[in-house]
Amino acid sequence: MQIRPADADDHAGIDALLKTAFPGPEEARLVVSLRAADQDTLELVAEDHGRTVGTIFFSPVQAVSAAGTEFYGIGLAPMAVTPEHQRRGIGSALIEHGLTFLTSLGVPWCVVLGDPAYYGRSGFQPAGSIGWRWDVDPDGIHADAFMIKALGGHALPEQAAKVSYHPAFDAV
Length: 172
Ligand SMILES: CC(C)(COP(=O)(O)OP(=O)(O)OC[C@H]1O[C@@H](n2cnc3c(N)ncnc32)[C@H](O)[C@@H]1OP(=O)(O)O)[C@@H](O)C(=O)NCCC(=O)NCCS
What we know:
Layout: E1 2-5, H1 11-21, H2 26-36, E2 42-48, E3 51-65, E4 70-81, H3 90-104, E5 109-113, H4 116-120, E6 125-126, E7 132-134, E8 146-150, E9 161-164
Parallel strand pairs: 4-5, 7-9
Antiparallel strand pairs: 1-2, 2-3, 3-4, 3-9, 5-8, 6-8
Helix pairs in contact: 1-2
The protein binds coenzyme A.
Coenzyme A is lined by residues 21-22, 77-81, 86-92, 114-115, 117-118.
């Protein structure tokens, strides 16, 4: 199994994987929208004997404090591993590869919306602990699931802030 950046030849395999791993087509559509948005994204695949068995996508996110200070980082979403290859560490390896590369670029932090038990294993902490909220969740209903990880020794900003993903996420 190898983990490498995705290229155009991988798109069909990624599409099939996302549609298999998630109950609906939303994540597959999201990835198409993010690619079309021409942002500074990172898309990796895990390949096993020529087959796409895992994928992970990172895209830029912005945080804004009440005072209007802007912070820029990265958001992890979506990620998936084919059901028959799950629980073999492929998901964790995709996260680690992605974050290592983004750290080397100087990206200061990464957010994710997901299961706290799963992402906590990779060093994510609740974003609410530093006063950060996901902008579409002002009441904090998903506060436990919205998590952040500082990268490369960067200190997380100490101002409460609202975090926005790319507009492509609004359609999901
Ligand atoms: C989430 C996902 C990518 C994990 O991939 P994976 O390759 O199985 O992950 P790993 O092998 O690194 O880790 C597996 C461990 O995490 C646990 N785990 C997996 N998904 C979990 C979840 N949603 N909540 C809590 N724990 C979870 C497993 O129980 C397993 O624990 P164990 O080793 O003690 O049995 C995969 O389960 C998946 O594709 N799920 C469907 C799509 C999805 O929900 N994606 C995440 C949201 S964007």
